[in-house]
Amino acid sequence: MIDWNQLWRQARAEKTWQGKTKKDWNERAAGFAKRHVDSDYVREFIDRLSLDSGMTVLDVGAGPGSLAIPVAKQVKSVSAVDFAPQMLVILHKRALEEGLSNITTIEGSWEDDWQALGIVPHDLVIASRSMGVDDLRGALEKLQAFARQRVIIGDRVGSGPFDPALFDAVGREFKPGPDYIYTVNILYQMGIHAHVDFIDLSPGRTYETRREAIDSCRWMLDDLTPEEDLKLQSHLEGRVRQNIDGRWTLMNEVCPKWAIISWSKPDKPEKALTPHEGV
């Protein structure tokens, strides 16, 4: 039987983009929060949650609260976990501004002992665009263990938020690494038959300034040389356009697509498969 978790590790080792560190996400926190407030992705993800006022929600990889803030307005409580403290600082500030007192922020990572962090099982566990881990099966088992009723994941499809044309423009190879299909197959081997839906986003994203638009592309390309940066700016000339309202829209050559993977906790879990069973 195929060991999908090992294949996941191998595919991650071959990807040509670098994973972001805690320092990277701390530095990106303010801009990230600004761009993802009330985004199409956030609205569509929340539409799939079936929230109710008595529900407790665990948001893993909560960032600056893009989901935690609007979700908290519809449920009993939200526990927001992230490994970047600056993200949680912004989340806490936004919660105060919104008059929300039902969000608990927890600094922690996938690798931490969640029980030691004081995390308890919640009715609903969500992990939106935060599954960039080396041990995917271990992460999925954690989500399963801390959910009372349901788990919902937002996972990358293909290149996800990355634009292959940008890598090509500066002369770099692009290998996106593994996507949602590994998650689905690992869940199957865990005895979980997940439901999969998709969110197709608009090919354009709007920014307040031209510099913000270009910086969002630089973020994808680590350690740009001056020559590469000039190539990038030249490539973007035809893709960054100013709108009537003065803001700037960056048109993607590939529309970002995300998989929404969800499952309910059964009364009696199915028998999980080991790498030596099945077909």
Q: Mind telling me the CATH class?
A: Alpha Beta
Q: Radius of gyration over alpha carbons?
A: 19 Å
Order of helices and strands: HHHEHEHEEHEHHEEHHEEE
Question: Ranges with pLDDT <50 over ≥5 residues?
Answer: none
Compile the SSE list and pairings:
Elements lengths: L3 H11 L7 H15 L3 H8 L8 E5 L7 H5 L4 E6 L2 H13 L5 E5 L14 E7 L7 H10 L1 E10 L7 H6 L10 H10 L5 E6 L3 E4 L2 H9 L7 H11 L3 E3 L5 E4 L5 E8 L15
Parallel strand pairs: 1-2, 1-4, 2-3, 4-5
Antiparallel strand pairs: 5-10, 6-10, 7-9, 8-9
Summary?
Helices cover 35% and strands 21% of the residues. With 279 residues, the chain is an alpha/beta fold.
Polypeptide structure, described:
The chain is α/β, with parallel strands linked by helices. The protein has one domain: Rossmann fold (3-Layer(aba) Sandwich), CATH 3.40.50. 35% of the residues lie in helices and 21% in strands. The protein contains 10 helices and 10 strands. The strands form 2 sheets. A 7-stranded mixed β-sheet has the order 3-2-1-4-5-10-6, with helices on both faces. Helix 6 links the parallel strand 4 and strand 5. Helix 1 runs antiparallel to helix 8 and helix 2 packs parallel to helix 5. It is globular and about 55 Å long. The termini are close together. The model has no long low-confidence stretch (mean pLDDT 87).
List keywords for this structure.
alpha/beta, Rossmann fold, three-stranded antiparallel sheet, 279 residues, 10 helices, seven-stranded mixed sheet
